[in-house]
Structure formats: structure tokens, C-alpha cells
Automatic annotation (TrEMBL), chain A:
It is found in: Cell membrane. Belongs to the BioY family. GO terms for molecular function: biotin transmembrane transporter activity. It comes from Halovivax asiaticus JCM 14624. It comes from the Archaea. The chain crosses the membrane at residues 20-41, 53-75, 95-117, 157-181, 187-210. It is a multi-pass membrane protein. This is BioY protein. One of its GO terms (cellular component) is plasma membrane. InterPro entries: BioY. Keywords: Cell membrane, Membrane, Transmembrane, Transmembrane helix, Transport.
UniProtKB/TrEMBL annotation, chain B:
This is Cobalt transporter. Its main location: membrane. The keyword Membrane applies. The chain crosses the membrane at residues 35-56, 68-87, 93-113. Keywords: Cell membrane, Membrane, Transmembrane, Transmembrane helix. It is a multi-pass membrane protein. CDD domains: EcfT (cd16914). One of its GO terms (cellular component) is plasma membrane. It comes from Halovivax asiaticus JCM 14624. InterPro entries: ABC/ECF_trnsptr_transmembrane (IPR003339), ECF_transporter_component (IPR051611). It is found in: Membrane. The lineage of its organism: Archaea, Methanobacteriati, Methanobacteriota, Stenosarchaea group, Halobacteria.
């Protein structure tokens, strides 16, 4: 019967999920909100856009699990019609379009960056559904721990961000190459080369943000 | 910019699940590089979809001028070769063929964006993705819709404050650092307030959603989707 649920007991969402989930949703919204921002770079054909920077920040500040959830929310909301893809576009068409590979790579990159930075502490084991487990404490989400990225060594940060960037561009350019029947050189010329300077600056900006004490992100 | 607009078109009346299935099926058909005849049928179908959502094709083309511009650039880059004969027509035509299909997919998704309110999308997501992940995805999507305008205003405020202090004279990296750290700080403060508010209001796994129901028209759309998925086999 359709009214059965009204008599079910309310299954409250535990705090260990609500807090990181709200942060993941807001980071997804922020990644969409900066879709309009572009900063001109001297001697570069493409301006600096901040979306990949927020992919980095999702992995760094939310960890591998919630970081990738955040970017999945970003993709789903954009597919459902929120104007949050580059240039304020929306719709499933963009997930299949020429830059679709870049979009799909975001959750993967955030996961890998989070895994490389937070190591084993970023993962936990247990039940994913708290309604299945009557004791919410001690579950999977309680065991997830995200360390302060400011305490992570510079080498580890550089490696994690470089691997994340490589994933974004390998999947993004690879998909465009397949979709539009381009040769590898053509794909690199259009989808990688114009953005190299911007990506290096974004990695520098992310490392400055993480390691600079002025920016308090508790 | 194309967003949801209330209306009483055929597309607005359809079940969001049928519309999602149709879009995915259409994408599968259009990006599989179909022959010219099926591509012509798909073009007519895309035109029909736009009209069913009361969208004029010129309006959509204008709204998507940048994605379409980049697609044209891809065709140009594919056609140009380094060294004689400089222009490889066959290569360009092959990419143009693929790019045309991608363009059609964008047109069809524009109709969904105009005809589907967020609460319908959320209900569709939660009925398609079972269990807790579906619920989290549904709630998260509505939160993203709700907070994008708020955070965009935050970003605007930060940019205005930077510009008033000659921030535009700073290096690109410094501007990116200030903008993203201030933006992230504000977003996380909002998120923490939101999580307290959610818990205060008994945020639960089992909320009440608008009921979705399949009508005859939705059945037809689903049937068409099944046909479209088989296009790559033709």
C-alpha cells in the first residue's frame, strides 16, 4: 500500500554521515558555482578555470570516499539540469559530449588524490546502509578519517595532484579522441596542450592554499 | 542559458524516468556513428523532441554556441594535416560525422532540462537507484540545486571585494588561491550549519516524495528508447 511508509519508524541519518554529506553537497555546488569564473593567464591560449582545482580540494579535504561522492553529486545534478557544467551548461548531453570524458574523470581523480593523500585512514570497513545496521556507531562512515592536508608532506601532495591531473587529461582527451575520431596528436592539440600552463598554476595554487597557514579550513 | 521553465507541453507531462531512459538511448544511438539514413531519422527525432518541449531550435543553437563552436574547431583540427596536402578531407568528414551526432545529443538533453523540475529528477533518481545510495544521491542533487545560486553570490562577493582592493592586479595563482580558499571556507561554514539544521529537523532516510506514475505516452517513449539502443547494431 502506498501509505504504508507513514507508519514506518523514522530512520534518522547519523551525524557521521550528515556532516561530511552536507560538505560534499556544498563542495559540489561550489564546483558548479565557479563554472563562470575564468582568470586570464598571460601567454596562455586558455584562461584559468577553477573546476579542476575543486576536484583537487574534494580529494584533499573530504578524502577518497566523500570526495568522489561530492563529484558524483556534481555530475548527477548537472545531468538533472543544474547549470553547473563549464560555461553554465546542464543536461545529460554534456556527459556524453566532447568534454564528457573530463567530467567522468572528476570523481575518479578525487578518489585517487584522496587515497594517495590520506592513505589507509581515508578508508573503513562495515555496513554502508545504517538502516540495515541498528547501531549506527562503529559503521563504515564512522571509521573514515580525513587528516588535515596541511600536515601532509610536499612530495606526497605533488605526486597526488600530478596523478590526479594525469587521470583527468588521460580520460578526457582519450574519450574525445574516441568520440570524434581524432588522432592522438589532434586530441592532445585541442584538449591538453592549451591547458598545460593553467594546470601547473592550479597545482601551485592548491599547494599554496593547503600549506599556507593564512587559510583556515578546519 | 537553458533551465527549467514551467509549461504544459507534451515533454512536461512525461514521466522523468521515461525521459532519462530516452536520453541515454538517444545518446547510445547518436554517438555510435550511425550511417547517414539513421542519422537523418535521429535528426528529425531530435527536432521533434525540441518541439515537444516548446523549444525553438535556433534558441537552443544560440544557447549552446560555445559547445557547438568547440565541436566545429575539432572538425577543423581533424581536417588539417601537417605537411602536404595540408587538408585531409576524409579525416575532417569522419570527425564532422561524429561531431554531428554529439550535437544531436545536446539538443535532446536541452529538452529534458527545460521540461523537468528538480523534484521530479530527484524522485526519478531515487526510484532508479535503489536503497541508501539513491536516497543520498536524490537529497544531494536537491541540495546542489538549492545552493548553487547562494554560493555563486558568495563567489561574486569575494570577487568584488578582491577587485576593490586591486586584486585584479595580482598573479593568476594568487587570485585562484584567494578565491578558492575563501569560497571553500564559506561553503564549509554553510555546510556545517546545514548539517546541524538537518539533524535538528530529524533528517531521515525515508522522506515523502512526489508520486511518479507511468502513462501510455511514457510507454511509447520507453519503446522508442529500446529501438534507439539497437541503432548501433543496424
Amino acid at each position: 500500500m502506498s501509505t504504508d511508509h507513514e507508519y514506518d519508524s523514522v530512520a534518522l541519518v547519523p551525524e557521521s554521515i550528515v556532516r561530511p554529506f552536507a560538505r560534499a553537497a556544498l563542495l559540489a555546488a561550489l564546483t558548479g558555482a565557479v563554472a563562470f569564473v575564468s582568470i586570464p593567464i598571460p601567454f596562455s591560449p586558455a584562461p584559468l578555470t577553477l573546476q579542476v582545482l575543486f576536484v583537487f580540494l574534494a580529494g584533499l579535504y573530504l578524502g577518497p570516499v566523500w570526495g568522489s561522492v561530492s563529484l558524483l553529486l556534481y555530475l548527477t545534478a548537472g545531468g538533472a539540469g543544474a547549470p553547473i557544467f563549464a560555461g553554465g551548461h546542464a543536461g545529460i548531453g554534456h556527459l556524453f559530449g566532447k568534454t564528457g570524458g573530463f567530467l567522468w574523470s572528476y570523481p575518479i581523480a578525487a578518489f585517487v588524490i584522496g587515497a594517495l593523500v590520506h592513505g589507509r585512514t581515508g578508508f573503513g570497513f562495515g555496513s554502508i546502509d545504517p538502516t540495515a545496521d541498528e547501531t549506527p556507531s562503529g559503521g563504515f562512515f564512522d571509521s573514515l578519517e580525513v587528516r588535515d592536508p596541511a600536515t601532509v608532506g610536499l612530495g606526497r601532495l605533488v605526486v597526488a595532484l600530478s596523478v590526479g591531473t594525469l587521470i583527468v587529461y588521460a580520460i578526457g582527451a582519450g574519450y574525445a579522441m574516441w568520440l570524434l575520431s581524432l588522432s592522438p596528436v589532434e586530441a592532445v592539440a585541442q584538449f591538453v596542450a592549451p591547458f598545460v600552463i593553467g594546470e601547473v598554476l592550479k597545482m601551485a595554487a592548491t599547494i599554496a592554499l593547503v600549506r599556507d597557514g593564512r587559510y583556515e579550513l578546519s | 542559458m537553458l533551465t527549467y521553465e514551467p509549461d504544459e507541453t507534451v515533454a512536461h507531462a512525461l514521466d522523468p524516468r521515461a525521459k532519462l531512459a530516452f536520453q541515454v538511448a538517444f545518446a547510445v544511438a547518436a554517438i555510435s556513428r550511425p550511417a547517414l539514413a539513421p542519422l537523418g531519422v535521429l535528426s528529425l527525432l531530435a527536432l521533434g523532441v525540441l518541439l515537444s518541449a516548446n523549444l525553438s531550435p535556433p534558441r537552443v543553437l544560440f544557447g549552446y554556441r560555445y559547445p557547438f563552436g568547440i565541436l566545429c574547431l575539432s572538425v577543423l583540427i581533424a581536417a588539417v594535416t601537417i605537411g602536404p596536402p595540408w587538408i585531409d578531407l576524409a579525416d575532417g568528414v569522419r570527425t564532422a560525422h561524429a561531431a554531428y551526432g554529439v550535437g544531436l545529443v545536446l539538443l535532446v538533453s536541452a529538452a529534458y532540462v527545460r521540461s523537468t523540475p528538480v523534484r521530479h529528477s530527484r524522485a526519478a533518481i531515487q526510484s532508479l537507484v535503489p536503497g541508501t545510495p539513491g536516497r543520498l544521491l536524490g537529497i544531494g542533487v536537491s541540495l546542489v540545486f538549492r545552493f548553487v545560486p547562494v554560493l555563486r553570490r558568495d563567489i561574486g562577493t569575494i570577487r568584488d571585494a578582491m577587485a576593490a582592493r586591486l586584486g585584479t592586479e595580482r598573479s593568476a595563482t594568487e587570485r585562484a588561491v584567494v578565491l578558492s580558499s575563501r569560497g571553500l571556507t564559506r561553503a564549509f561554514v554553510r555546510a556545517d550549519r546545514l548539517s546541524v539544521a538537518l539533524q535538528a529537523r530529524c533528517f531521515a532516510w525515508n522522506p515523502t516524495l512526489p508520486p511518479l506514475s507511468f502513462a501510455r505516452a511514457d510507454g511509447l517513449v520507453l519503446l522508442l528508447s529500446v529501438v534507439l539502443v539497437t541503432v548501433p547494431l543496424w
